[in-house]
Amino acid sequence: KAGVTQTPRYLIKTRGQQVTLSCSPISGHRSVSWYQQTPGQGLQFLFEYFSETQRNKGNFPGRFSGRQFSNSRSEMNVSTLELGDSALYLCASSPPQGPYNEQFFGPGTRLTVL
Amino acid sequence: GNSVTQMEGPVTLSEEAFLTINCTYTATGYPSLFWYVQYPGEGLQLLLKATKADDKGSNKGFEATYRKETTSFHLEKGSVQVSDSAVYFCALSVGGNKLVFGAGTILRVKS
Fold first, then answer.
1. Chain B neighbors of A55, CB-CB under 8 A
2. Would you state the pLDDT for residue A4?
3. pLDDT tens for residues B79-110?
4. N or C end of chain A: which has fewer CB within 10 A?
5. Residues 6 or more apart from A71 whose CB is under 8 A from it?
6. What span, in angstroms and rounded, lies between the C-alpha atoms of B15 and B105?
7. Would an 8 Å CB–CB cutoff place A9 in contact with chain B?
């Protein structure tokens, strides 16, 4: 079974631009969560989508948004990029009836904002 | 709120040494506890988990016991290898799929 895939793996943008990151979950997984990883703040939860609906949200500004499609693939968008948005963005998927909320992570997208 | 505190690293050990990485948590509710590992350039992999008090999670020689009385979930391994060099994250979940992570502990194992 293929793992969680994220595209692109690396991205360089300039301040003020917007960016869209993509995540394809493991087949059969309907929940997709996004995390931001930075040296200063560590790993922080952005949001979770389940069956095309946002089910949970972290403490990030409205510039960070996401969506999920009917095939469970998810995208996250960051508008008006700031230098502080430079980070590794990780996507994770969960099985529909995982008893321990086990999440399977993708390799991440490394975003650099110049 | 919910939070996880891990011992600061880096932790540097010689091969075959005993490893302990301390993790304590604060949670509203009854959390599930996890250890994740991140190898250079990769995403996170679940190492082990425990869902109730006194549960012991184990995998690849690593162990951690859910201690409700001390709100702890310390990671241990009897004999580390160079290949165990990575960043280790303690995490909790209180319902749903939102994980709260500790800051991570870098482990370096020398041959």
1. 96-97
2. 96
3. 999 999 999 999 999 877 889 999 999 999 99
4. N
5. none
6. 18
7. no
